[in-house]
Design a protein that fits this description.
2,3-Dihydroxybiphenyl 1,2-Dioxygenase, domain 1; eight-stranded mixed β-sheet
């Protein structure tokens, strides 16, 4: 497992240069308006969205699970606690195919639990990207499916 920090940034090139130096790392993935770093130490997935008009710098927080079965376990736990807001299975967004769970805390901060199933999908659906890929976030994710 590793924590994910997703930030809205004013200028993607400037942000990539800064965070690359800060963590001594190169981006794992880079696309127009998007970059992510898979940092080993500290274990962090840093995701940058170019969104100069964003009201908030923090886009969302997440937990990337690596082990098969870990997401299903988390889903059961969140459902039992009444904390599961949305489930997305085999969604291609953020330039990867993923299974993900969303929970929103009382003050509106969004948490994503996810597992990447294909880190380089042949076809990306950027035009139909769910909330994780856009700079804009709805006030509340859709109901759990």
């Amino acid at each position: 497992m590793r924590l994910q920090l997703a930030l809205n940034v004013r200028n993607i090139d400037e942000a990539v240069a800064y965070y690359g130096k800060l963590f001594g790392a190169k981006p794992h993935k880079r696309r127009p308006g998007y970059a992510n770093f898979a940092i080993a130490t500290p274990p962090l997935k840093l995701v940058l969205f170019e969104n100069p008009e964003a009201a908030e710098r923090l886009h969302h927080l997440g937990v990337e699970v690596l082990a098969p079965g870990a997401l299903a376990e988390t889903r059961g736990r969140l459902e039992a606690l009444g904390l599961l807001d949305d489930v997305q299975l085999e969604e291609t967004c953020c330039h990867a195919t993923q299974d993900k769970l969303w929970s929103q805390e009382p003050q509106g901060l969004r948490w994503e639990w996810y597992r990447i199933t294909d880190d380089a999908p042949a076809k990306e659906r950027v035009e139909a990207a769910p909330i994780c890929c856009s700079g804009d976030a709805p006030s509340r994710p859709a109901s759990a499916t």
